[in-house]
TrEMBL record:
Gene Ontology CC: one annotated term: membrane
Name of this chain's protein: LHPL2 protein
Subcellular location: Membrane
Membrane topology field: Multi-pass membrane protein
Amino acid sequence: MCHVIVTCRSMLWTLLSIVVAFAELIAFMSADWLVGRAKPSSPEELDNRTGGPQEPYRPTLGIYGRCTRISHMQFSRRDTLCGPYAENFSEIASGFWQATAIFLAMGIMILCTVAFVSVFTMCVQSIMKKSIFNVCGLLQGIAGLFLILGLILYPAGWGCQKAISYCGPYASAYKLGDCSLGWAFYTAIGGTVLTFICAVFSAQAEIATSSDKVQEEIEEGKNLICLL
């Protein structure tokens, strides 16, 4: 018989697991890893609001994507164009970024799998006599290691020609040059930290769902058990 067990700690772990998976996935797909040096607008390109020249803009560069602006001289405006600059894996600008993409993709796949499984932990608490929380926590720890490897290798690719075209000639491995870090990089770091927090917190979720109070509720014949 399936017992639906809901506790504050198990629900918090489930929500964090889902948030972490989505945060890492969004960061990986974003082009806002590097914010390039400012590029001035030409005098012919006018701001629709002020009627004057547009302010300089800063293009962004991701692991495999980029955002830039394309001029429409006949309309005196610019449109931001975002999309992948690499049509296939081999065209990613740096070998270090290729390794970053592999490690991040592996970590994200694990996190998405755990996030999917975590939804069913309310009804299934063990697999082959092993706590599903402990198994998921172990997988989250492994995913966190993959994410760390990817984030460590990513700055090593700042010396590639693609990064130099965005960040200037002074850009090199672990040196940003004229670029700055975008929100996607910080989101990936924050998600990595939360991944390890989830891995540790999974033990608390397991303790909460196997506590004496839960066992007493099961012995009383209750199928839906909600505990604070």
